[in-house]
Design brief:
Elements lengths: L1 H16 L6 E15 L4 E15 L4 E10 L13 E10 L5 H8 L4 H8 L1
Antiparallel strand pairs: 1-2, 3-4
Protein name: Lipoprotein
Keywords: Signal
Organism: Victivallis lenta
Length: about 120
């Protein structure tokens, strides 16, 4: 039983402590509640939000464009909509991405054209 627990904990630690170089992009619209830790002073962070939120952890050569418009009119008299409207657009363009090993090869004197040709 101890071996199964140890293997499970090791597997969980490997999954949590390793990462990859892929792009992680999260978009949310509406009511949200976020809990986290502020890394500057290690304080608990609680955030209640209403609206659009974009979280992006991207590598090099990525362009993100988030445009939006939100209108609210509390005096509209309609209790169901209260005159609120929301409109937005999210564009993501991901260009060619290379890793550090490729950059090191170019710095070491390898022919950059051959490296790029091999990446295709």
């Amino acid at each position: 039983m101890k071996i199964v627990s140890l293997v499970s904990m090791t597997f969980a630690a490997v999954l949590l402590l390793t990462g990859c170089g892929h792009n992680a992009i999260q978009y949310g619209d509406g009511i949200g509640f976020d809990v986290g830790i502020n890394p500057n002073n290690y304080m608990l962070s609680l955030n209640l939000r209403y609206g659009k939120i974009l979280s992006a952890v991207v590598r090099d050569n990525v362009e993100l464009e988030l445009s939006g418009k939100a209108d609210a009119n509390g005096m509209s008299g309609d209790p169901n909509t209260a005159g609120a409207s929301s409109d937005g657009n999210l564009k993501i363009q991901i260009g060619r991405q290379i890793n550090g090993a490729t950059v090191d090869l170019v710095k070491a004197g390898a022919d950059s054209e051959k490296i790029i040709e091999n990446l295709k």
